[in-house]
Write a structure and sequence with these properties.
- The complex is a heterodimer of chains A (190) and B (601).
- Chain A is 41% helix and 23% strand.
- In chain A, strands 2-3-1-4-5-6 form a six-stranded mixed β-sheet, with helices on both faces.
- In chain A, helix 2 links the parallel strand 4 and strand 5.
- In chain B, the strands form six sheets. Chain B has a seven-stranded mixed β-sheet, sandwiched between helices. In chain B, strands 14-15-16-18-17 form a five-stranded parallel β-sheet, sandwiched between helices.
- In chain B, helix 16 links the parallel strand 14 and strand 15.
- In chain B, helix 11 crosses helix 14 and helix 17 runs parallel beside helix 18.
- The longest helix of chain B has 24 residues.
- The chains are: A alpha/beta (190), B alpha/beta (601).
- Chains A and B meet through helix 1, strand 2, helix 2, helix 3 and helix 4 of A and strand 1, strand 8, helix 11, helix 14 and strand 20 of B.
- Bound molecules: iron/sulfur cluster (2 copies).
Chain lengths: 190, 601
């Protein structure tokens, strides 16, 4: 049995770090694990995806449509874009954040005004909350990704709490460890 | 982030690229050369962490230089690694073809990262063709663990046959992480001492003809070796009567999506392991070749007289993902009436797309914005500045390959294009292959206006040093090549260095140089703010009572300027880099610096 986690967001939001933490946690918990990241244009404001598979034997790092046990998004229209990758009955963790693409700010396209309603229709199991605001509340807006990992950790029961914390610690620079651990615990406690 | 040098643990979680670097170190690599290119860049960025332990690493000016330097290191005895993306091998093809004849002493492994699906590349070329053309082995790892093991094996094969070996990864292999069993202690590096052997290292026809024959003999020996190699193995349902021949990560996708099949995973696919194909085909009711890229295995398997299917079932273009293979499975088993994969829900229809774009504060924006004032043709090039092609700037008309910004402009001007022609290359691209184009313009009396978009770094691939930055890959200070001095030496008299943030000055310079009846060079110089990690000035804001809602500032396409409702845009203070470009564009003086005390960071 494998567990598949799909993460999505916008370049610069820290999706790759979140993916690294989850993959490392799975490894430290003794699972076979593989993960994949989009790099290319990631830093230039494009959509970013990362996928992690772990379990008894994880071979192909890519998740098929309808194959993700959990979908987590740091930007809410990116969650809609990936909605069809979530398994029936899977959990969606979505940050209530709008990042407006240039196509919208230049007037060429429109940003939907009814994202919460759409999310509610598409995801029967939805956790929806503004993790960027939470992160700002913790003193650093960039911690939204770690908060989200904390939220996910409560759903991904195959990995014990202490292992998660170790993975967070190993994945960030020393000076940031304490802050990230606090953000992780905050997310897990939500 | 990431491990510094540490005693390698037994099992680590590495990306394919990191695994190649770790394995190269563990295999006793002495020297490593490359040019940045997605998805290959991280290999040398990881390997350079081992430079304190004696591995020499460099960013070469281009891939041809990298391979030639590695050839020199290798014939002197050192194990050498070369890294590049797929199109880099086009540049390095010349030395590769001959190196196949002259051969190596220390193992020489050329990592070429292909990009099926064209995530970040202009073509989808299949590097296996080059292996056939050059008559050298190609190994194809399918995950990080194999990237590690195959790299070690590639060095062994290279030394066994004294020929270069291509290690072909794909974006999915390079950028996927997996568990890797690392060697505890590295193999000792080879002794370096060049021994003269002109019959080997000088392919004058008299010796070249003999080398040519040896290459064919080598191919036969390697094919037999490959047929026995553990790099080729059967995964999935071993005894199935449904056989799939595949390669790289595609084989793993196949095993996962079609678990009822026996999958011959070719890790050493060329020279073709014929005996293996023949024995695998025995007892199969149906044989399907699932290839990502061109039907190279398929055509060869058919040439052996084995009945098989391939590109009739598998798409020719794009990444062959598990979803694509699921589509293949539905075609293999129509009688099973497998359901279609879930499609995006109606709620996901019509979402605004999120194309990549120039960052807030990017110096290229000012350069392109100034160009919007002129009726010119712009031949662009490969780099962040490729993004100048998109609206609202729309200021690039052609892109071909590294260096072609200058040369295409020259050809177009010579052909008699009525409008002035502008050629743009980046600073890293200038040193990669822009200089010869510049020479062409001057020597042949062209009058194009050439621009070097000089942001002082190789930005697109994640900020690598180059000959103009004054720092080496190993972090040492070095001589800084001067673009203007090079241009002057080539014979350009009209050279100007302009700040792209100074719109007045830049536009004026353009006006004069476009009118000049001789070649001119404008160096658009300002460091990439993402690299220097510095605000350029105070964050700007739009005074809503002064703003007339004319939309002029939106024309520069800065992502920090947002129009979310109404007619009057706002500036996102977290995103703004304070470059002041927009302030200069607003005719009403509505865009002003935010007071120091309300700045966010
Ligand atoms: S990385 Fe630098 S050069 Fe590239 S788009 Fe961003 S600011 Fe411009
Ligand atoms: S000053 Fe204007 S153009 Fe420059 S980054 Fe800020 S909003 Fe963008």
């Amino acid at each position: 049995m494998n567990v598949s986690v799909l993460l999505t967001g916008v370049g610069g939001q820290g999706i790759l770090l979140a993916a690294k933490i989850i993959a490392l946690a799975a490894k430290e918990a003794g699972w076979s694990v593989c993960s994949n990241e989009t790099h290319g244009m990631a830093q230039r404001g494009g959509s970013v995806r990362a996928q992690i598979k772990f379990g008894d034997a994880a071979h192909s790092p890519l998740i098929m449509e309808g194959g993700a046990d959990v979908l987590a998004a740091l930007e809410h229209i990116e969650a809609l874009r990936c909605a069809h990758y979530l398994k029936r009955g899977g959990l969606a963790v979505v940050s209530a954040q709008s990042l407006v693409p240039v196509t919208v700010s230049s007037g060429a396209a429109e940003y939907p005004g009814d994202v919460p309603e759409r999310l509610a229709r598409v995801f029967p199991r939805l956790v929806y909350r503004d993790y960027a605001a939470d992160a700002a509340g913790l003193g650093d807006a960039r911690l939204a990704n770690t908060i989200m990992v904390g939220v996910l950790s409560a759903e991904i029961k195959q990995i014990p709490y202490e292992t998660w914390r170790r993975a967070v610690e190993l994945s960030v620079k020393k000076d940031f460890a304490e802050r990230n651990l606090a953000a992780f615990d905050f997310g897990r406690g939500l | 982030m990431g491990a510094e040098i540490e005693e390698p643990a037994s099992v680590t979680l590495l990306s394919g690229n990191e695994a190649i670097a770790h394995s190269a170190y563990a295999s006793g690599v002495g020297t490593a050369f490359g040019y940045p290119g997605t998805p290959s860049t991280e290999i040398l960025e990881e390997l350079v962490k081992f430079s304190p332990l004696g591995v020499y690493c460099e960013w070469s000016p281009n891939e041809k230089v990298a391979l030639e330097a590695a050839a020199g290191a290798s014939v002197a005895g050192a194990r050498s690694l070369v890294t590049m993306k797929l199109v880099g091998l086009n540049v390095a093809a010349d030395p590769l073809m001959t190196l196949s004849y002259t051969g190596v002493c220390g193992g020489l492994v050329i990592v070429v990262a292909d990009d099926p699906g064209q995530d970040s590349s202009q073509t989808e070329q299949d590097t296996r063709h080059y292996a056939r053309l050059a008559k050298v082995p190609v190994l194809e790892p399918g995950n990080a663990e194999e990237a590690y093991d195959f790299t070690a094996e590639a060095f062994e094969i290279s030394e066994r046959y004294r020929c270069p070996v291509i290690l072909r990864t794909t974006t999915c292999v390079s950028h996927s992480r997996g568990l890797v069993r690392e060697r505890k202690s590295p193999r000792a590096a080879n002794a370096v001492a060049f021994e003269r052997n002109v019959e080997q290292f000088v392919p004058l026809p008299v010796w070249g003809r003999k080398l040519r024959v040896k290459v064919e003999e080598r191919l036969d020996a390697q094919a037999a070796d490959a047929a026995r190699s553990a790099l080729n193995r059967v995964i999935g349902a071993q005894d199935s009567r449904l056989g799939i021949i595949s390669h790289g990560v595609t084989a793993y996708h196949c095993a996962e999506v079609i678990p009822e099949a026996a999958v011959l995973k070719t890790g050493w696919g060329f020279p073709f392991p014929d005996e293996l194909f023949i024995s695998f085909a025995r007892g199969k009711d149906r044989l399907i070749v699932v290839e990502e890229g061109d039907p190279i295995l398929e055509e060869h398997v058919k040439s052996l007289g084995l009945a098989c299917e391939g590109k009739g079932l598998v798409p020719r273009c794009g990444e062959i993902t598990p979803s694509v293979i699921y589509g293949v499975k539905r075609r293999i088993f129509p009688e099973r009436e497998l359901p279609e994969l879930p499609a995006p829900p109606p709620e996901a229809q019509g979402l605004p797309s999120r194309p990549p774009m120039l960052c807030p504060g990017c110096p290229h924006r000012g350069m392109f914005y100034a160009l919007t004032h002129f009726d010119v043709v712009v031949c662009g090039d490969i780099g962040c500045y490729s993004l100048g092609v998109f609206p609202p700037l729309n200021r690039t008309d052609t892109i071909l390959c590294m260096g072609a910004g200058f040369t295409m402009a020259h050809g177009m001007q010579k052909a008699g294009e009525k409008r002035p022609v502008v050629g743009i290359v980046g600073d890293s691209t200038f040193f990669h292959s822009g200089i010869t184009g510049l020479l062409d313009v001057v020597y042949n009396k062209g009058i194009s206006t050439l621009i070097v978009a000089d942001n002082r770094i190789t930005a697109m691939t994640g900020h690598q040093e180059h000959p103009g930055t004054g720092i080496t890959l190993m972090g040492e200070a070095t001589k800084q090549a001067s673009i203007e001095a090079v241009a002057r030496a080539c014979g350009i008299d009209r050279i100007r260095v302009c700040s792209p943030y100074d719109q007045k000055g830049f536009t004026e310079a353009l006006r004069e140089e476009l009118a000049a009846e001789e070649p001119s060079l404008i160096i658009s110089r300002a460091p990439c703010p993402l690299h220097v990690k510095r605000r350029l000035g105070p964050v700007r804001m739009i005074l809503q009572d002064v703003c007339k809602g004319c939309g002029a500032c939106l024309k520069c396409g800065c992502p920090a300027i947002e129009l979310t409702g109404g007619k009057k845009p706002k500036i996102n203070p977290v995103a703004c880099m304070g470059c002041s470009l927009c302030s200069g564009i607003c005719r009403f003086g509505a865009i002003v610096p935010v007071q120091e005390d309300v700045q966010r960071r």
